[in-house]
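Hello,

Our lab assistant flagged a job as stuck in the queue for most of the afternoon. It eventually completed. Since we weren't sure the result was trustworthy after the delay, we are filing this so someone can double-check. Below is the sequence as submitted and the structure that was eventually returned. Let us know if re-running is recommended.
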Amino acid sequence: MGLPNGRLFLVQRTFMAFRRPQNFTKPNISVIKQIVGKTRDVASAMSFQTFTAVSLEEAKQAMRLALGTDAVILASKKRPDGVVEIRAIKKGMPLFEGEGPRSLRPPGPKIGSSLASRSRGTRDTGTGAHRNGAVEGSGLHERVEKSASSSALSKLKGDFTSKLQGSREGFSDSVHAELSDKLQPQGITPGLVKALAVEVRNAPEGEMTAKLEYAFERVLRFSPITLSPDAPIMLMGQTGAGKTSSAAKLAARAAGMGDRAAFLCADIGRAGALDQMTTYAEALDTRFWPIEDPQDVTNVLRQERPEDILILDTPGVSPFAPTDILAMQAFRDALQGEPILVLPASGDVHEHIDWANAFRDIGVRRCIITKFDTSRRIGAAVSAAFESNLALAHFAEAPFIADGLIDANPGYLAQRLMMKDPARIGSSF
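-- returned structure --
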């Protein structure tokens, strides 16, 4: 049953019409059949492979033989004939040509352009402070602006005091001085450096990386997401932070555990958003509903009664625009799920802190940090989590769904911060 205006019903019927026929040969663990999948109206072929066997473990064995032990499962199901079927992709391989940064995506026809055209034409997905009629000095904008001004003034006063005192405190401590030299160029705030220095002094003897891991474990909170049909997830953040790819990676994680996730995409006003989400939904063999407003979420829950793990991908918003915040609150209330902030690793540290504090005000308690692979300085997001008391859920160091998410952990942060140049080290954790 679809929504009253038939919007979702038509989308679901379209998916069924374009779903590839499952014409597999006789199930056997030795039979590996590559499926070249194409989403409707998307010219680029997807690179996943499909494996069938009489049991899940045998299908996984075939997958590992073909793709390696670190292959990523995208979807799994038991067919009516009792045969187990899984879709998988080799780690580090793009799912489709152009997956990743927008600049690398090939031009192509747009999916669901009629749906996108019905989204609100006045929606601005930028992150400017005066979007959507936000008036300077009013509501949330006023609180954030006041907080930022106060923070900047305090920092100036602190810098001046530190210079006056010279070496009498702070940097007279060799541990504090060493950490400051290494971490402040990464964008780590003085407050976080100070907190880490206290714990590093108490750490067991060893190399600085090990001591820093010990300190991070005590200073920051780490809380990876446990996916469950009873706990919907709502990803929030600025445009381009990596919300959609994070949603797909969470869905792939669910598939790897034998569960199934479904998408609700409220980011239909962004160019290419429906293309991207439809491609992910096709590859993950899961359901997907385009959403225009919170009432659509309510209608899906009431009429479709999904039993999957629900992941809502929201449009890029600004915490400085009261209308954006009200919209996010309405989506959260309709979904009755946990809002998760998605932050890029690098950027202006004070902007990141303002963002984290603002989203905490509407119920965010955990965050996913993305773009580790393209960021030399990752201190902005880490410091924002510390200053706003947000727990770290996951890290993403590659744009491909095949690379998945890394469970946030202190060892990764310590090693990554001690490196001179960006590198992918997630396989070590």
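-- support follow-up --
The delay was a queue issue, not a problem with the job. The result is valid. The radius of gyration is 23 Å. The first strand starts at residue 32 and ends at 33.
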